[in-house]
Amino acid sequence: MPAQEGTTTNTLWPIIWTGLKRVAIKTILVSYPDSFRLEEAKSLVESADYNIVKVFTQKYLNHSQYGLGAGKAEEIRDFVKEQNNIEQIIVDEHLTSKQLHNLSKLTGVEAIDRERLILNIFYSRATTVEAKLQIELAEIQYEMPRVREIAKMTAGSERAGKGGMGEYTVDVKFRDLKRRMNFIKERLVEAKKKRDLYRQQRTRTRLPVVSLVGYTSSGKTTLFNLLTKEDKETSSSLFTTLSTTTRMLKSHDGGQDDVLLTDTVGFISRLPPYMIDAFKSTLEESLAADLILLLVDASEDLQKIDIKYSSCWDVLDELQVDRSKVIVVLTKYDAVDPQKVDEIVQRLQLNKPIMISSKTGYGIHKLRNLMFARCHS
Description:
Elements: H1 13-18, E1 26-31, H2 35-47, E2 51-57, H3 70-83, E3 88-91, H4 97-107, E4 110-113, H5 114-125, H6 129-153, H7 169-204, E5 209-214, H8 220-228, E6 245-249, E7 259-263, H9 273-278, H10 280-287, E8 291-297, H11 302-318, E9 326-331, H12 338-348, E10 354-355, H13 364-375
Parallel strand pairs: 1-2, 1-3, 3-4, 5-7, 5-8, 8-9, 9-10
Antiparallel strand pairs: 6-7
Helix pairs in contact: 2-5, 5-6, 6-7, 11-12
């Protein structure tokens, strides 16, 4: 059944929040023919536990009526009719409510865009109260412009509300969203105050902070576990880590040169500004560290490395990070030959990057020594 006008995918919330299992939704993915974007889109869909039945690609996904071109939309409609088991269409781009509605109406199945897909993944990964609040804030910021758009789509079918006061349902919903957004922001401010207090306590104890950042699935949590002897969940799925975790990293000599190590949410390309804003409070706290290790997966092909490295710096620059505090760490060195390492260094114009392998332990001792030396110099 097509999604009705004015509805959202909030019906997914109870399933995600309660942790109930559901059969993987059979999905059509529409993405770009570019290999990086296509592979990332597939990874996002798989991380949401959806089952990709068919992939359609198109060079442009900014057409006015459906996002994708009318011919491609009709091709998808015909495929849906043939299969008779497709439940959802995912378009790897930001689409308006009208475009999603038009595509859903044409094909007869629900259509969602890239941003909704990412939000669904966030919901399934959130474990802390603060992470859930941040995601709900992003959800509201995603919905608010769509409320107005839906109002235009339903104009003429709705009459003034209660008691002839001239108030429309869309006005009530918009006001409720703003009220909820303000409440969440207040809660996040309270959480920030607590983190500021913890940071002040750390400052008094003079413990420096090292933060691990990087593209999602770059190996941050694996390195974090190796250094701290923790057992945080690691996975090839995107956004396994959504909230920051900080642990003590003790010096080998048992002296006073301990540091705090922080693991953070992974970055991703084409992440909308409002999603960065939603996580800004925790990101700013971790990125105010004394030293930032930017992890880059050296085992990937050069084009992917270029795009991911650039995307990471887009976020870091957005958060006004001091570049002098950042050290680039090339991970998965066990899967890379020296010639490729040289190519990566040249392409990214790196100055003495650290090479490590969390799998074999290569470079870990050197990295550890560098961390302590930089933090206590």
